[in-house]
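Hello again, I could really use a second opinion on something today. I've been puzzling over a protein and I'd love to understand its fold better. I'm sending you its amino acid sequence along with the backbone structure tokens. It would help a lot if you went through both lines with me. I've dropped the whole record in just underneath, so have a look.
***
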Amino acid sequence: MGSAFALVLHTHLPMVLNHGRWPHGSDWLCEAAFECYLPLLETAHRLVADGISPKWTINLSPILSEQLASPEFQKELSFYYENVRRACVESRAHFEAGGNKEIVRLTSFWEEFYERMWEMHRRIGGDIPGTFAELQRGGHVEMITCAATHGYLPLLGRDESIHLQLRTAVETHRRHFGQAPRGIWLPECAYRPRYEWTPPTGRDSGRVRWVRAGIEELLAGHGLEYFVADAHLVSAGAPVFLYRDFVPLKARRDEPASSVPSTEARSPYAPYRVASRGGTGAAIAFFRDPKTTLQVWSREHGYPGDYAYLEFHKKHFPGGLRFWRITDSSGDLGRKIAYDPALAAQKVGLQARHFVELVTSTLATAGAAGPAVVCSPYDAELFGHWWFEGPLWLEQVAREMARGAAVTPATLGEALAAVEPRATLALPEGSWGEGGDHRVWLNRDTEWTWDRVYSAEAEWAAHLAATRAAKNDLARALAQATRELLLLQASDWQFLITTGTARDYAERRVAEHYAEFKRLSEMARGLASGEPLSPDDANSLRRLEREDFCFPDLEPAWGMGPPGEG
């Protein structure tokens, strides 16, 4: 195969079913399904029907897969669809009364879009994970996994927690996609090598130290061969701020600038074996190409900021439909003019060709000394949600490459077979977030959330020894306590607090999952000592099993280590 282009899409939302609807809750999931997941499937099917295999590498996080496969999601999506259909009708009447013919035409555009996506949903039997699995069986995509609930692995307080996140991820992936994953998207591309670790906050901070395994060692134990990391980890260069383009962060003068240990010059265009000094396992890292990803991520310098594209931030209420294009760089929503889908489609074609040319030239330079890989990883929600034209752009890129461009698209597994990993190296700690470190997830506004995570982890670990012998109500209580711990560990809560996008909701979710964990832990202690389950506790347990239904085959003992160890 020689050099290759690997497009990697990370698809994730936290557990929102049964935890609110609007403005924060299940509407997030339904909006993503209509604007991102179903359009991506429609695009992939259209390409395959024309004999073009997209060769995307896609991760549906385990907690997202669990929600998409649930009957509760089907009910919420139907309710959401009825609401957007009503919004189209009511918006049309509103703009007809005002004589705005351009917007009236756009209400028909949205009506057709939602009807087409609903028909797509009906055609696949409502099974989004199963349809991605079918594309994988056809060799058109590769499905990789993610930590079970998107836990921020470097900051979790115990290796048992990381084992639990990874084992649950592998088992859930196998259940939804029919085979174990070879690769993983580390949440927030966050990596930590082996070193003497102390909790960054909480009662043990600075007092207790012990050697923690490198993330790559833990991955290897669960059969996960490769992951994606940010380019600044391999080059020791300045990170590209991905989230800033869409969720601006206030400057924090009290936080130091990121520093990365210097290394010799290395290339992000090759996979490397990663192993911590003194470690017992290794994994292979692919690195994000800063050239191509900046071209797509950046709203200021990249394609999504084109003035012809749909403006994300201006919506018509009631209904929340978007009818305006970006128009200019002023940021003044009052100056936006009506969206023109035909003009936007023309821009998509031009920018797809530009992107393929950029990938071609990048590979030509990087591959001068041998086969190279351009790895372009993105949050999938960029395509269709933040950037409405994104799925069409992906389609046009695939078609340009199929027309004979000197670029071979490949999944990560295929790229690994074509490009030999380079020598083993040790990576510094870091992420793809603001500053390239952990500051988005650990700062003065979020320290209290980690205090609760660390407290719950320690209490849960104390229960582990009893889990193998647990039966009946005790087994149920311990399993549900483990689910609440996993949901508490989701990195989404710190991100939403730091960026301020849904701070109250995220703070409430942390408090709720921690309180439910504590109640279940106390319940388990009582059951273990021979006390019967009280009626109130029985009702609470049934309620939580119904509301937080994820991972039905979960075993707390998965935290003890990989298969054969735990």
Notes: The longest strand covers residues 4-11. The two ends are 40 Å apart (CA to CA). Residues 4-427 form a domain with the 7-stranded beta/alpha barrel fold (CATH 3.20.110.10).
